[in-house]
Amino acid sequence: MADRGLPYPTVFSVDSCIGVPPLPPKPGQRMAQRQRRKVTETILFLLVSMALIGILVEACFLYYLQSHKQDVKDKEFHHLKSKQPDTPDTPQTDAQKGDKRIDEPVMPQQPTVRPTRRPTFRRPSKSVAHLQRASWPDKDGLITWSDEEDHIHELTLTNGKLVVPKEGYYYIYSKLTFKADGGTFNHRVMKATHLYPDPIELLRYHYVGGQKPNLTSSVRNSYLGGVFHLFRKEGVFVQAKDGRVLLQSAGENFFGMFMV
């Protein structure tokens, strides 16, 4: 064909990898996008404005508190200053006035002695008793105690018995210093109750020894202690038999109880 002077036919190339061209926007879509953008910008502006206003209010509040605090301090200072006596500029003593009379003796000022307060003790919150002044056991072995200088709270001492005011658990203890002249000694803590006619034994110490009497080495100690449940108006007392209780000092023999 070229030889004959005829033009070449038009050749179209098609690229199969190119996607579909985008469609033109729908009518009114651009206007909706502009409105949403305007609403978003308005909301952001309002939020930023509110944050700035909050910071400004907080700064004003802090300034007011600081100025008010300073005014209070100034008022207190002037109030205290007004109470203080005015110090004159003129000297008050002879030495400050330039007086040459220095031969007069100066008496020292006596210190003021303030009376001391007696210490106050808190009352215990529960029933408690501690007895130290014991007497000789009677024929039944009952030891009576004196409550003149001992500590008793809410408990009652009646004929050597500590009577409880209310039901509960109590720790009961007793200590005796004794001398087993006959070779034996019995130390017991008993309970008197209206439920039984005879006393009930709570604690017991029984000593059996073969030492000779009237020797210093035969002096011994007996301690009893334990927790027991007691009813109202029940009494607890101490018995000592078959020996000799030594009344040496208040710390050698004692008897007490307290509510747990």
Radius of gyration: 51 Å
Overall, the morphology is elongated
So what's the CATH class of the domain at 128-259? Answer: Mainly Beta
Q: What is the CATH architecture annotation of the domain at 128-259? A: Sandwich
Q: Into which percent range does the helicity of residues fall?
A: 10-25%
Based on the model shown, name its key terms.
260 residues, Jelly Rolls, six-stranded antiparallel beta sheet, five-stranded antiparallel beta sheet, 13 strands, cytokine
Explain how this protein is built.
With 260 residues, the chain is an alpha+beta fold. Among the domains are: 33-69; 128-259, Jelly Rolls. It is 23% helix and 28% strand. The chain has helices at 29-83, 94-97; strands spanning 128-131, 133-134, 145-146, 151-153, 156-158, 161-163, 168-179, 184-192, 200-208, 219-230, 235-241, 244-245, 254-259. The longest helix is centred in the first third of the chain and has 55 residues, at 29-83. It is elongated, with a radius of gyration of 51 Å. The chain starts with 28 loop residues before the first helix and ends with a strand. The model has no long low-confidence stretch (mean pLDDT 80).
Mind sketching the topology for me?
Layout: H1 29-83, H2 94-97, E1 128-131, E2 133-134, E3 145-146, E4 151-153, E5 156-158, E6 161-163, E7 168-179, E8 184-192, E9 200-208, E10 219-230, E11 235-241, E12 244-245, E13 254-259
Short recap of the structure:
The protein is an alpha+beta fold and 260 residues long. It contains two helices and 13 strands; from the N terminus they run H-H-E-E-E-E-E-E-E-E-E-E-E-E-E.
